[in-house]
Design a protein that fits this description.
The complex is a heterodimer of chains A (about 400) and B (about 270). Chain A folds into two domains: about 160 residues, Rossmann fold; about 220 residues, 3-Layer(aba) Sandwich (Rossmann fold), CATH 3.40.50. Helices cover about 45% and strands about 20% of the residues of chain A. Chain A has 16 helices and 14 strands. Chain B has a single domain, classed as TIM Barrel (Alpha-Beta Barrel), CATH 3.20.20.70. Chain B has twelve helices and nine strands. Chain B has a nine-stranded parallel β-sheet. Chain B starts with a helix and ends with a helix. The chains are: A alpha/beta (about 400), B alpha/beta (about 270). Chains A and B meet through helix 1, helix 8 and strand 11 of A and helix 3, helix 5 and strand 6 of B.
Chain lengths: ~400, ~270
């Protein structure tokens, strides 16, 4: 496949920069700075050092033996992004962009957040690098994720409630962009997913590809060969593009993205952008979008706040339409089942997002031979979701002794 | 000749600055929008921007966002907005219509079908705020073929892009007065005068200024430097305030009158 994105920020036909003129120079400045620093050894060294000493990378590639045995098919390896500082892969990107912001001479950072994971990761890096931080969060999400709101505040960030539109992640993204337009001089926008206008999908991918780079080395060291499948959950798609990217040239490795089917793709309450969406322009790039016949963007639903988004990163659309990656929907209920299964067989409570990847693996593994290998991105840990899980399972907390 | 050019040529002769009000079509409903358009013309508007409601209006502040939400509640579509222009024309409105729409509704409609409809329904110009010059080649080509002006935005941050953008412009160049989204504000970008001078230098087309202009003083201030002044959020807010009057049949005329007085007051 050709090197993507091209100089116009296109992944095939997808991507681009569909933003108001008021933002164009900020994006061009960002692209120029990124192109410059990404070739700068001291910049890369600073990031490597933080990933290693601060976040605890490399994360392990763990052979889930009991899960593999229980499913009775392929060998399942879990890429343990949940072991990162702050509990998810999000920190890989915020470390990279935080250091970039500082090199660019910006003193303030802003970020959008849905469930709060990217907000916490941004607040964390802001504290570490001595930057001012504002996190835009939908009022609805603030109610649902009070603990993460408090975590961000504890880290010194200001959480700005977003009252427009759906009052969730989609509108938090809009509001962050709107704020950025008025404050481009001293403010850096740390976008949290592989979405948005060019150069963000490229930058986020490059900072997340460490997931795939490590997995590749680790599986070869462990098994002496590449995996047959790589599976990852997709909301905006940052952990998925991160683990897929280093395997894209390996035609025999099948890449499986797992999106949220919410209450079912046949209902109106899902976030199955690839299954039910169409090509469209949303939040700065051309990609698959959940939308009505008139091009109005539809609200998404998923039990997982991190997947509750009506768009997807443009590189995923490119991988889908070129046939290089496949995307499957998993319902709230299937994700909950998988979450419990992993908790009980391996002693790992996954994030609800990651539980979608596990659920697809539960379907896939039994169809494969015992000598085949699946690598699953366990993108985050489930601590943040315990309340949601508890209420979904009927509050069985008192039964635990 | 495109009606926008005709109007600006006439204004130039008369040494007048164009007043360009904006409204969101379908806020609060289509019938009222038509009445407001008529009222705007009677109150001294020279061109009108017809805003298409959108679920994710990135360039707009809270006032126009709320107008979009109100219009979308009654499922106003891009087609409705375009048809509204033709209906206003049938009702006797003479001034040029500029359709202000985000790109995705246009993309879903189909670019060619969209341009065909726009052409047939009395719309003279297009503003697509999330379609910068890097992305507008196909739309610009179709618009030119249809004789529709694709009006670009330039911002104080556009710097050396001003020349490139202005060279491709048709109709007029829309200068964004301040960094940020649409909405009433007391202060403009500190370099606004230099910026407007730069744009003036870069093009022979008329230049209009917009974003945040809400009072007679501000209209007068910019009339010296510009050929047109766009007033958006201030009018949309006035419409919002008048909704209780507009929604009741026997106070409707009073609501329209108040909007009209506000617009007439902008001109001095």
């Amino acid at each position: 496949m050709n090197r993507v994105p091209d100089e116009n920020g296109r992944f095939g036909k997808f991507g681009g920069r569909y933003v108001p003129e008021t933002l164009m120079n900020a994006l061009l400045e960002l692209e120029e700075a990124y192109n410059h620093y990404s070739k700068d050894e001291s910049f890369q060294e600073e990031i490597r050092n933080l990933l290693h000493k601060y976040s605890g990378r490399p994360t392990s590639l763990y052979y889930a033996e009991r899960l593999s045995e229980q499913l009775g098919g392929a060998k399942i390896y879990l890429k343990r992004e949940d072991l990162n500082h702050t509990g998810a892969h999000k920190i890989n990107n915020t470390i990279g962009q935080g250091v970039l912001a500082k090199r660019m001479g910006k003193t303030k950072i802003i970020a959008e957040t849905g469930a709060g994971q990217h907000g916490v990761a941004s607040a964390t890096i802001a504290a570490l690098l001595g930057l001012e931080c504002k996190v835009f969060m939908g009022e609805e999400d603030m109610k649902r994720q009070q603990l993460n709101v408090f975590r961000m505040q504890l880290l010194g960030a200001e959480v700005v409630p977003v009252l427009s539109g759906t009052r969730t992640l989609k509108d938090a993204c809009n509001e962050t962009l709107r704020y950025w337009v008025s404050h481009v001089d001293d403010t850096y926008y740390i976008l949290g997913s592989a979405t948005g206008p060019h150069p963000y999908p490229m930058i986020v991918r490059d900072f997340q590809r460490i997931i795939g780079d490590e997995s590749r080395k680790q599986i070869v060291a462990e098994e002496g060969r590449l995996p047959d499948y790589v599976v990852a959950a997709v909301g905006g798609g940052s952990n998925a593009i991160g683990i897929f990217y280093p395997f894209i040239e390996d035609a025999d490795v099948r890449l499986i993205g797992v999106e949220a089917a919410g209450r079912g793709v046949e209902t109106e309450e899902h976030a199955a952008t690839m299954t039910k969406g169409r090509h469209g322009v949303f939040q700065g790039s051309l990609s698959y979008v959940l939308q009505d016949d008139n091009g109005q963007v539809l609200p998404a639903h998923s039990i997982s706040a991190g997947l509750d988004y009506p768009g997807i990163g443009p590189e995923h659309s490119y991988l889908k339409d070129s046939g290089r990656a496949e995307y499957f929907p998993i319902t709230d209920d299937e994700a909950m089942e998988a979450l419990q299964l992993l908790s009980r067989t391996e002693g790992i409570i996954p994030a609800l997002e990651s539980a979608h990847a596990i659920a697809q693996t539960v379907k896939l593994a039994p169809t494969l031979d015992k000598d085949q290998i699946i690598v699953v991105s366990l993108s985050g840990r489930g601590d943040k979701d315990v309340e949601t899980i508890m209420s979904k399972l009927g509050g069985a907390v008192d039964e635990s002794h | 000749m495109n009606l926008i050019d005709t109007v600006f040529a006439k204004l130039r002769e008369e040494k007048r600055t164009a007043l360009i009000p904006f409204l969101t079509v379908g806020d609060p409903d289509l019938k009222t929008s038509l009445a407001i358009i008529k009222q705007l013309e009677e109150s001294g508007a020279d061109l009108i921007e017809l805003g298409v409601p959108y679920s994710d209006p990135l360039a707009d502040g809270p006032v126009i966002q709320r107008a979009s939400e109100r219009a979308l509640k009654s499922s106003i579509t891009l087609r409705d907005c375009i048809e509204a222009a033709a209906q206003a024309r049938e009702a006797g409105v003479k001034l040029p219509f500029i359709l202000f729409t985000y790109f995705n509704p246009v993309l879903q409609f189909g670019l060619e079908a969209f341009m065909e409809l726009v052409k047939n329904k009395e719309i003279s110009g297009l503003i697509i705020p999330d379609l910068p010059i890097e992305e507008d080649a196909e739309v610009r080509q179709l618009a030119e073929a249809a004789g529709i002006h694709l009006i670009p935005l330039v911002a104080p941050t556009s710097k050396d892009r001003v020349v490139r953008i202005s060279q491709k412009a048709k109709g007029f160049v829309y200068c964004v007065s301040s960094l940020g989204v649409t909405g009433v504000r007391a202060e403009f970008h500190s370099g606004i005068d230099d910026f407007l001078a730069t744009v003036r230098e870069a093009t022979d087309l008329p230049i209009a200024v917009g974003f945040g202009i809400s009072s007679r003083e501000q209209v007068e201030r910019f009339s010296k430097q510009c050929d047109g002044v766009v007033v958006g959020s201030a009018i949309v807010r006035k419409i919002e305030e008048s909704i209780p009057l507009l929604e009741v049949e026997n106070t409707r005329a009073e609501g329209l009158k108040q909007i009209g007085e506000f617009v007439a007051g902008l001109k001095g």
